[in-house]
Amino acid sequence: MSQLTVAKFGGTSVADADAMSRCAAILEQNPDTRLAVLSASSGVTNLLVALASGEQQPEARATLLQQLTDIQQGILDSLNKPEMLTRHIEDILVHIKELADSAAISPTKALHDEIVAQGELMSTRLFVELLRHRGTPAVWFDVRKVMRTDDRFSRAAPDLGLLSAEVERELKPLCDNQLVVTQGFIGAANDGRTTTLGRGGSDFSAALLGEALDAIAVQIWTDVPGIYTTDPRLVSEARAIPEISFSEASEMATFGAKVLHPATLQPAVRKQIPVFVGSSKAPEAGGTWIRNSTPSQPLFRALALRRNQVLLTLTNQSMFQVHGFLAEVFGILAKHKISVDLITTSEICVSLTLDAGAELLTDEVQAELGKHCHLKVEQGLALVALIGNRMSEVNGTGTRVFQALENVNIRMICYGASPHNLCFLVQEDNANQVIIDLHRELLPA
Ligand code: ADP
Ligand code: ASP
Ligand code: MG
Prior knowledge:
Blueprint: E1 5-9, H1 17-29, E2 33-38, H2 44-52, H3 58-78, H4 83-105, H5 109-116, H6 118-133, E3 138-141, H7 160-176, E4 179-183, E5 186-188, E6 194-196, H8 202-212, E7 217-222, E8 243-245, H9 246-254, H10 265-271, E9 275-279, E10 287-291, E11 300-315, H11 325-335, E12 340-345, E13 349-354, H12 363-370, E14 374-388, H13 397-403, E15 410-415, E16 421-427, H14 431-442
Parallel strand pairs: 1-2, 1-7, 2-4, 3-4, 7-9, 8-10
Antiparallel strand pairs: 5-6, 9-10, 11-13, 11-14, 12-13, 14-16, 15-16
Organism: Oceanisphaera arctica
GO molecular function: aspartate kinase activity; ATP binding
EC number: 2.7.2.4
């Protein structure tokens, strides 16, 4: 199958039977789409996370389970409660209840992923049945057969070699002559235990499967008709970008544009697979194509915002002209699998932001770092990223940006490492206004 396309449908796209029907119509109009990768129905993963976190109160657990059941029942009702599937979904809900009871006694990371994965397992079963109702046969496939990962539960990393080999063996033959429906977000460690790729990970799953299947395109169907100049929920004047390069879109995803999981474009870049982002509610509205390069390369393309940033400042009075200090610090962070985003240095200080919350900075990490330097941890910050082209080469870029922010306290600036971004930290409380002001000044309609 040389023309295969992979389509991913996010949570709102499979929220209920009407939404699922719109996805089915998209697939029916695109016979080259042989693999549909689904998220859990909207709201389901949040409920499962609450159950997996070891909710202590039986009444609270019962309420969460009821909400979960209502979402699944709503879809089953629209399908006239097919007997076998209804029983299957009921079995899954009982299984979730048992696992949640265990988590209340002793929550573990492995149990967490096993519980949270049930959302995608249910949505895909329901979607296959909905397709069957419409006369569009499709095969349900358990992605854990191919999405092999390490065992870092909640943030598992795929094993690309195993994924490619298993896709070749298990999935490619199925996709050759029919539509296959599978789960995003979930995988399995070598010992068979269920893992997950991190919140929002279904985009990444779709891109990884597209890469392994040699797809000619990956479509990300969501609730907005494309990637916008900034989050349209924040700035109503934001507009969809028809075409954007891999480099720019990767910066956007990394620095908080929720529309794409940060790792989504890595597989696409490796295999040069164009990625389309569109709305399953309005497929006719078009969307954004992400490609290797685009004819237009504006200086300013988009703004992204990432909240809850942790800024770590390490001070060592004797750092001046001493070698090895940064290596020590990064060695400790690497040992604890903490990755760093932004960095600035001075004579005796290094400031850096982490790509995850303060919970990674455990007492153990702080004690180890504390042996080499004084440590200051600041929270309540937001990272603003301006994305564009040749920004570090064009005179006056910084002036234009910072003039628009003359009344804002800017905590840290990173500029020049890439021609595609200029990042800075502001207080969380100012973040929305900063995006609104910058969008008005730098990205006018
Ligand atoms: P899905 O459930 O389909 O994966 P998400 O909620 O993860 O959808 O992502 C879509 C949301 O991303 C949009 O509703 C929008 O609010 C948000 N978003 C943030 N930044 C952008 C952007 N630059 N362009 C489009 N959407 C964005
Ligand atoms: N269902 C998962 C989540 O809500 C994965 C996804 O939607 O991409 O995070
Ligand atoms: Mg998403």
